Amino acid sequence: MTVMSSAVSTAAVSASGVARAFGSVQAVTNATLEVQPGNVTALIGPNGCGKTTLMLMLAGLLRQDAGEIRVAGADPRHDSAAVRASIGWMPDQLGSWDNLTCLQTLTLMGRGYRISKDEARARGAALLETVHLGEFADRPARVLSRGQKQRLSLARALMNDPQVLLLDEPANGLDPRSRIELRTLVRDLAAQGRAVLVSSHVLAELDEMVDDAIFMSKGRTLGDEAAAHVADAKTRYRVATLDDSLLRAALADSRVPYDDEPTGIVIRVGSDQEAAQALAWLMSKGVPVHRFGPAGSALEQTYMAMEEERR
Amino acid sequence: MWLVTGIELRRRRPTVKGWIFYGLVLAVILGLGILVAVSSSDEKTSGPLEMVLVLVLGAGMLIAPSLAATSINGDSAEGVLAPLQMTRLTAGDLAIGKLLASWFIAFAVLVTTTPLLVYAFSRSGWHWDELAIVLGAILLVVLTSTAIGLAWSSLAARAVASVSLAHLTTGFLLLGTLLAFVFVQPLVSETVTDVNRYVDYGAMTPEQQRAYEDAQMTGDFSELDVASLPCMEYSSQYGVAHTDRIAWMILANPVVMIGEVSPIINAETYEKDGRAAPGVFAIMHATVSGWRMGPSEEDLAGRTYDECANLAAMAAGEEPPMMDEGDWEAEQEAMSVYAPAPWVGLGLQIALLLGSVWIVISRLRVPYKKLRQGTRVA
């Protein structure tokens, strides 16, 4: 890292005020984000909000019209080769060389990164095992199913041992088992000190995978407001009882604030300890609780709330 | 760069069907060769060799640009271009690698025809170095067409558009230069007037007519009173094009360029020189040379034929002056050995090649500033 960039931030990826237009269409208006090494950050937003465009700019494939981007300390406008070398990019579009086998694909990609042939081959074979495609190593990529191609694409993104991973909709088309494996793999990659930015629509999936979330809407990243929403959503616990009037009375008596929502009553607890205390307290008040737990995915709640504001 | 070429060639590795098709093509080529060998006489002839060369050129100019013209926008649509751009490969590596991969396939056509080429060459009266130069020129033309295809592929969003544009460009170079040469001729034409005088048969008296006919029959013009015969003057006007001023248009044609680098074969002395009779290329060179020389003084002066004067000469017992047709054979020889001018064509090919490669490299450079209209990055 150069002195200048370390002065700017310790983040592996940082963007501030980034904008990009295609002709008259403003795809990204104002995006600001940071991804720390060892962290998994989610990029969440509705279709067409500019997630992929932002990722392309971070990957050094597309030049931003305005704003600053630093990836591993380098500016993609001036040193896009260094940026690209430090990034593993998994595109949203599935592309593979149909006539080449999976192992050939990875070996050739590795050689594109100037890795020696033997090393690229060994690395490719190991990555195929990592993404559970070992048995397809010598079969042409055209026989792969959508989910398998997705995994090959992930292996391809890892060929250059990148410090930064940009995963664009990696869970698309994966079966439930592969999703769980992907989650574990992404956590492992982050644990190795890599910075991971992942965009997805499967919000419940992201909940368990990410440390941080960035919401995007109409080309803007929603900063603190969204973060506050997520923090709030994480404290929301839904309480289901056999008799809600008892619960309302108990809460009102003790001046505990609660949300009376159509789907049930929601209270806020700060931590797991608080949750345990709250449940014990409710039981002691004789409230017939039959279900007590987080009010669904925090990301999903925030997403829906943001969508609501948009309308 | 070679890595990209390797990837491209591996991706296009033929399937079983592909090999069968290739085998059929090879069989047709060999069959044609044997047919030509059997049907032709034992004399030296450059026909088969020229046929093979034209075949290589034609196949190369059809196949290689078609492949190249889909290889950037096609890859982009398939989503396999951007992952390569993410690696340490530069835009130049990608451009040159893709160019060579398509070109090598045209090269394979040449290799396929080798048996026929060797046989045809043995009978052609050409020398090795001459063949090498012509093959070099053909491969350059194919390489340039390939680069043009690649450039269109990097400019147009759809593969259909880039393939058509690539073939249109090739077509323009082949036919457009010819058409331009033909249509521009009136602009550089000079009006030439032929003045001819004839005896006016209709205005003669019956006696004169009889005497005139007798003289024509017997060939004895001494009895004819030539001075009294009515004479009439016809003049006709037509344009003679200064083709020498626009010959560069035709020299820009890639096929003409190949003709210009082919061996010079003297139309008169080829047998003595150990050559075959002038073939397609030699005739093309002679024709183009004729255009380059332009009209002669006599061509521009117009031709005159004076029957009245001729009759007077014959009546006086002299030989009438011959129509000056020029020395046709000497003219043919001069045209056939006229110094070849491949430089216009070669220069154009090299300029197009470099220009196309420059376009491709600048269009493949990431981060993209501009995208092809209506496309996404991957």
TrEMBL record, chain A:
<dbReference type="Pfam" id="PF00005">
    <property type="entry name" value="ABC_tran"/>
</dbReference>
<feature type="domain" description="ABC transporter">
    <location>
        <begin position="13"/>
        <end position="243"/>
    </location>
</feature>
<feature type="signal peptide">
    <location>
        <begin position="1"/>
        <end position="21"/>
    </location>
</feature>
<protein>
    <submittedName>
        <fullName>Vitamin B12 import ATP-binding protein BtuD</fullName>
    </submittedName>
</protein>
<keyword id="KW-0732">Signal</keyword>
<keyword id="KW-0067">ATP-binding</keyword>
<dbReference type="GO" id="GO:0005524">
    <property type="term" value="F:ATP binding"/>
</dbReference>
<dbReference type="InterPro" id="IPR003439">
    <property type="entry name" value="ABC_transporter-like_ATP-bd"/>
</dbReference>
<keyword id="KW-0547">Nucleotide-binding</keyword>
<dbReference type="InterPro" id="IPR027417">
    <property type="entry name" value="P-loop_NTPase"/>
</dbReference>
<keyword id="KW-0813">Transport</keyword>
<dbReference type="InterPro" id="IPR003593">
    <property type="entry name" value="AAA+_ATPase"/>
</dbReference>
<comment type="similarity">
    <text>Belongs to the ABC transporter superfamily.</text>
</comment>
